[in-house]
Amino acid sequence: MAKIVNSWNDFDPLKRVIVGRADFSVIPPEEPATSEKVPVDSAMRGMWGPRPTETVEKANAQLDYLAKVLEDNGVTVDRPEPLQWNQPVITPDFRTDSMMTCMPPRDILLTIGSEIMASANSFRCRYFEYLAYWPLMNKYFEEDPEFKWTQAPRPRLTDASYKHNYYDEKISLEERLERTANKDFVTTEVEPMWDAADVLRLGKDLFIQHGLTTNRKAMEWFKRYYPDLTVHAVNFPGDPYPIHIDATFVPLRPGLIINNPQRRLPEEQRAIFEANDWQIVDAAMPAHKEPPPLCYSSVWLSMNCLVLDHKTVIIEASEHNQAEQMDKLGMNVIPVPFRDAYPFGGALHCATADVYREGGCEDYFA
Ligand code: DAV
User: Fold this and answer.
1) Ligand 1 atom closest to Cα of residue 346
2) Bridge partners of 306?
3) What ipTM does this complex have?
4) What's the 276 CA to ligand 1 centre distance in angstroms?
5) Strand ranges across the sheet with 312-316
6) Where in the chain are the domains?
7) Which of 120, 132, 95 is nearest to 218 (CA)?
8) Most buried of 11, 70, 307, 312 (most Cβ within 10 A)?
9) C-alpha closest to that of 111 among 359, 364, 357
């Protein structure tokens, strides 16, 4: 019996990882949490249904290529088992007409040490997404005697979990930014809700973004669940749609983080990094002016990279500004084309979930 699961951060040498699959992906119908994050001028407003087959095939080709590049670099790759996502989700508390996908595993699975926990997502359409990963979790459970297989408390996601008509169609960008600054988001505080991609793991410290997908009660839940770790709530004024920390604040190695220049960490929250000699560098500008069609995310997927070790990083092949910056920061860059996968939930960090990285639980912020 071998140790299969171990990861405390996003930069120690990667040995095993999950890479998502795009099969059967659906653009979900509007619901209280999702309609609020689709920009008003987006062609996706009001549109839902299975994604066109040719886009699924193109995304899968790039996901398969990423898996191959990882294997060529000595990383074991596991893949989820997609469900037929075009089915309604019905619970005692709500109904929504379709699920979504299992492409961004990073949103669902949080690895901390020898534990992988399925998250408490606020989107109703993602309620059963964890099922795609259960065969893998069961395998790890059977093969690794130390693996802790966990599910966070499931939120009920009744209407009380959301502020309704929170964003009027006509709300201006300035008003959205004001709400982000005031930490006024679409979710309420009736129960803990969080996406795993809002949690940045740095050994003994967790930095958790408070935004559209993770609420304050989740932070309190994390504090009680992990009494040996220190939980820091962070937020990034400047982001009108704050979901997930991994296109905003991305560590490359101990002591070095790139930060989205439009979503800077506020001064008072920088203090802990500065006091411990961490350098926070503005990320390079994205190479693209627009995300690809039918994509939820912003152009800042440019910085959503997958670090293989303290000197090696995979970035999207067309993001030449980001590649150049990585080179200057002393990282070797492995370019991987990935824009066809973006619409399915994100870039290289989103599309993966850590299973095993070397190294243990370091205390970087003594
Ligand atoms: O900038 O749109 C994308 C993060 C997806 N996991 C953004 C955030």
Assistant:
1) 5
2) 314
3) 0.94
4) 28
5) 306-309, 312-316, 332-336
6) 14-162+177-357
7) 120
8) 307
9) 357
Q: Which range (15-19, 163-167, 226-230, 360-364) has the least confidence?
A: 163-167
CATH of domain 14-162+177-357: 3.75.10.10
Cα–Cα distance measured from residue 354 to residue 200, given in angstroms and rounded to the nearest whole number: 12
Distance CA 127, CA 324 (A): 39
Ligand 1 binding pocket includes 188 (Cβ within 6 Å): no
**344 pocket-lining for ligand 1 (C-beta < 6 Å):** no
pTM summary value: 0.95
* Residue 111 bridge partners (DSSP): 116
Is there an atom of ligand 1 within 6 Å of 297 CB? yes
Nearest CA to ligand 1 atom 1: 298
- Per the model's pLDDT, the better-predicted residue between 30 and 149 turns out to be 149
What does the pLDDT average to over 325-342?
Answer: 98
pLDDT band at 240 (very low <50, low <70, confident <90, very high): confident
Show which residues are catalytic. Answer: 195, 244, 350
CA of 245 to the centre of ligand 1 (A): 8
Question: CB atoms < 10 A from the CB of 257, how many?
Answer: 20
CB of residue 298 inside a 6 A radius of ligand 1: yes
Q: Which atom of ligand 1 is found nearest the CA of 107? A: 6
Residue 112 CB less than 6 A away from ligand 1: no
Question: Cα angle vertex 295, ends 253, 332, to 5°?
Answer: 25
Q: Whose CA is nearest to atom 3 of ligand 1?
A: 297
Atom of ligand 1 at shortest distance to CA of 304?
4
